[in-house]
Design goal:
InterPro entries: Band-7_stomatin-like. This protein has a domain of 59 residues. The termini are far apart. Helices cover 74% and strands 0% of the residues. Helix 1 packs across helix 2. The chain is mainly α.
């Protein structure tokens, strides 16, 4: 009888976890649609993430830079990189 009750509790816990994951996936979908519709929103989210990471601990922050920017600097790796794509 105890094993049956435990199995029932585990089943309910799995259902609750699955419902939580479903709600989270819907929230992520909605957020991605908002970010996709407004480039400014994506930039703000990016800056917020950088702020959160920097305030939590000492860390190195990498800023993604389009490879095309290196063309103006005559960077030797630019030509090698663009040949591969």
């Amino acid at each position: 009888m105890a094993a049956e009750a435990e199995a029932g509790r585990e089943a309910k816990a799995k259902i609750i976890a699955a419902e939580g994951e479903q709600k989270a996936s819907f929230a992520l979908r909605d957020a991605s649609q908002i970010l996709d519709s407004d480039p400014t929103a994506l930039t703000l989210r990016y800056l917020q993430t950088l702020t959160n990471n920097a305030s939590e601990r000492e860390s190195t922050i990498l800023f993604p830079i389009p490879i095309d920017m290196f063309e103006n600097f005559g960077h030797p790796l630019y030509d090698e990189f663009t040949k591969k794509i």
